[in-house]
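# step 3/5: fold
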Amino acid sequence: MSAQLTLYASKASPFSEKVELALREGNIPHKYFEVELFNKPAFFADKVNLVGKVPAITYGGPDVSPEDPSPLSAKLAESNVILEFIADAYPEANLMPTDPIERAKVRFFIDATNTTLNTPAFAWVRNSDPDAEEKLLKAIEVVQNLLPENAKFAVGDSYTIADACITPYFHRLLINTKHDVGRFPEGSGTRVGELLEAPKYARFMAYLRAMVNRPVAKEVFNEETVTAAWRKIFARS
């Protein structure tokens, strides 16, 4: 019998989504507890994560209610740390290659995604940089150049934590472009969506569609819930 694992997460959070994707893609038994980002329960900071970060997990210890986590369980936070832990703790889930070079490629892709795509994407949504739209498109080109020619997966021939890590960005990019959600000037989301249909982004978009159309991705991502949350968080003044 495997150790208990409880994921404390928020459906609105891309960082939470990547962990849930990995757990579900790896068929890893776990409990899920939804945490309101702006109204976290008192027990969460006291017994799960002292700084209140979401997502977080408890691992091991007795199988108890998520609302009363055991002091005997390990507590981990930071989404990418959790992803690596899951891949190491559940090798049978095949979320990381066994070859050291391929494992390094997975880590490199995750780091490149975080450092290259994360900053301009959020700057664009927040409208905090007048050149954010141009920087976002350049970042997308960088990510595209990291992808294999056929781009079914980020690294190798199977799904890894690299794919789980980037998929939440894809979901939110589609919300931005489909619904024009963001503090950016009205119409910027629609325009970026149209630009991404150009042949120069074909590999990126093929990979994006392959990831968001996976059955688990469709189960985990609730477009209505996330769109409503992002409209509230990134409402235009």
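# step 4/5: annotate
The two ends are 52 Å apart (CA to CA).
# step 5/5: archive (pending)
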